[in-house]
Design the sequence.
């Protein structure tokens, strides 16, 4: 499958690497086609990897992943071109973090709205699925923990889109918990802060943890 990756940060590059390892083709998109991180990533990841602008990645992807600075989602999606995402699954990995007051950050959007809902409103004809936002990039692909595979919580309005993203998550090595419609992003984005606070519960902070839902 062709994956359009909007974002050249740690998440875009880690997920891009995972998709390539699973045999998919990935185009990493940035504001500038000559983005050094994206060009280097494409060079290092072989023939199935390429780099371009946000618009190039949006056109290329059958599935598109949003991995941009959460408070810049709208600007990145406008540059990508909303029309290029019509009818496509968009996996939203973002958190609208504001670290201007120091660490840990706060959510710039919270309460009765969320980044996930804003992305779905902006891309009204795309199928947005929130996923991958509650773990660090180092553990996104093939997470390995003593307690077994962790769970990724997802949400979105379209059942078929969530099934497809769920299958991709299983390929990446995750259990999958579907918590409902895209408004669940309000809680998944807050859950990201729980993940960050868990990191700060040790001195120095450690980032090697992930969530798992235990059931009986
Ligand atoms: N880092 C993690 O471990 C982690 C884990 C879970 C979720 N997340 C979430 O995933 C998202 C990506 O995180 P990240 O750490 O990989 O990278 P990041 O530094 O949060 O974002 C980098 C991307 O945002 C784009 N960007 C920055 N400012 C922009 C603007 N004004 N307009 C348009 N695009 C802009 C950059 O574009 P250029 O490529 O052009 O520079 C780049 O592609 C974030 O929302 C983050 O909260 C991160």
Sequence:
């Amino acid at each position: 499958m062709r994956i359009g990756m909007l974002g050249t940060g740690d998440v875009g590059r880690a997920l891009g690497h995972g998709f390539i390892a699973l045999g998919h083709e990935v185009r990493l998109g940035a504001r500038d086609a000559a983005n050094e991180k994206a060009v280097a990533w494409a060079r290092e990841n072989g023939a199935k990897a390429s780099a371009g602008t946000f618009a190039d990645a949006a056109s290329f992807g059958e599935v598109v992943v949003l991995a941009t600075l959460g408070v810049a989602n709208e600007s990145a999606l406008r540059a990508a071109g909303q029309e290029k995402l019509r009818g496509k699954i968009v996996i939203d990995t973002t958190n609208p973090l504001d670290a201007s007051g120091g660490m840990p950050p706060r959510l710039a959007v919270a309460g009765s709205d969320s980044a996930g809902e804003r992305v779905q409103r902006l891309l009204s004809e795309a199928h947005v699925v929130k996923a991958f936002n509650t773990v660090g990039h180092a553990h996104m692909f093939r997470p390995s923990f003593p307690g077994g595979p962790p769970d990724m919580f997802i949400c979105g309005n379209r059942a078929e889109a969530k099934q497809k993203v769920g299958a991709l998550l299983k390929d990446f090595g995750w259990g999958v918990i579907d918590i409902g419609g895209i408004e669940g992003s309000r809680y998944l984005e807050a859950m990201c802060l729980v993940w960050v606070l868990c990191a700060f519960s040790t001195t120095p902070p450690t980032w090697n943890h992930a969530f798992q839902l235990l059931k009986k």
